[in-house]
Design brief:
Blueprint lengths: L1 H16 L11 H23 L1 H6 L7 H13 L4 H10 L7 H13 L5 H9 L1
């Protein structure tokens, strides 16, 4: 638990440090749209997770394995499943530990694997 709280603290510190203001004092429009897109993607992901949280409580969660999670999500989306169904499959595959940090790691991993697994990348970042 201490390790995951340290990771969350580090992520929060990086997020706070990454905000750069324009010399006039406002966020530049290009930065703003990218940040908004990331926030919307995270919001959609958290909604999907909250919708399946009751189902996941009945199941034992596994370890956080972002690479495998991206592959599971991408495969499910290519089969025509919804993001919620893809998340359920990810939980059943025991590659998600239920933490917010794991969600962040999965999204970041999908960014690095976007060429090989474009459906997961689009779903987690572009919606």
């Amino acid at each position: 638990m201490k390790q995951s709280s340290d990771i969350l603290r580090q992520l929060h510190q990086k997020r706070v440090r990454s905000i750069h203001l324009h010399p006039i004092g406002s966020i530049q429009p290009k930065q703003h749209s990218g940040k908004m897109r990331a926030l919307v993607g995270l919001l959609l992901l958290s909604i999907a997770l909250s919708a399946i949280s009751s189902a996941s409580r009945a199941q034992e969660l596994g370890r956080c394995e972002p690479t495998k999670a991206v592959k599971v999500i991408d495969g499910a989306l290519r089969e025509g499943k919804t993001l919620q169904q893809a998340m359920e499959m990810m939980i059943k595959a025991k590659v998600f530990d239920g933490s917010k940090a794991c969600i962040t790691f999965i999204r970041e991993t999908s960014m690095t694997m976007r060429d090989a697994h474009p459906s997961a990348f689009k779903s987690l970042w572009m919606n």
